[in-house]
Amino acid sequence: MEKIAVVFQSLDDVTRLRILALLLKESELCVCDLVAVLQLPQSTVSRHLSLLKNSGWLTDRRHGLWIYYSINRSLAPVQQFLVPVLVNFVSSSQTAKDDLDRLENLSRGNCCA
Q1: DSSP string over 18-76
Q2: Which of 6, 49, 97, 106 is deepest in the core (most CB within 10 A)?
Q3: Any idea what DSSP says for residue 107?
Q4: At what angle do helices 14-25 and 77-89 cross, to 10 degrees?
Q5: Dist CA 66 CA 100 (whole Å)
Q6: What is the predicted pLDDT for the residue at 2?
Q7: pLDDT in tens, 31-72
Q8: What is the distance between the alpha carbons of residues 108 and 113, in angstroms, rounded to a whole number?
Q9: Neighbour tally for 16: CB within 10 Å
């Protein structure tokens, strides 16, 4: 029961929902790209990424100095159940659409090249 509570608590923040919406559309994003799209300080984005990773939503990989995040391919059953719900509702929000537009217009990878 505690693991389910952690999963739901991890969704109780607009920034974390925005991150998940972006990563559900993109296979992988660098922290610097997320900072640029979300227009938030790196420390804030990193804190939310850490919480999402610790709750099982995300995995990361290090490439030199940069860390890239993606949706965990081994999600818990409750998370697997929630993914279509997130895709349907979160990505249809105007905020998520604005984030995806910023991502599309971003010169991606320039900060971590």
Answers
A1: HHHHHHHHSS-EEHHHHHHHHT--HHHHHHHHHHHHHTTSEEEEEETTEEEEEE-TT--
A2: 49
A3: -
A4: 90
A5: 21
A6: 83
A7: 999 999 999 999 999 999 999 999 999 999 999 989 999 999
A8: 9
A9: 20
pLDDT tops 70 at residue 84? yes
Q: How confident is the model at residue 106, as a pLDDT?
A: 84
**CATH, domain 2-99, list 3.50.30.30, 1.10.10.10, 2.30.42.10, 1.10.1530.10:** 1.10.10.10
Tokens of 31: 């922290």
pLDDT at 75 over 70: yes
Residue 66 Ramachandran class (φ > 0 left, ψ -120 to 50 alpha, else beta): beta
* Closest to 59 (Cα-Cα) out of 46, 48, 73: 73
CB 53 within 8 Å of CB 59: yes
* pLDDT score for 100: 92
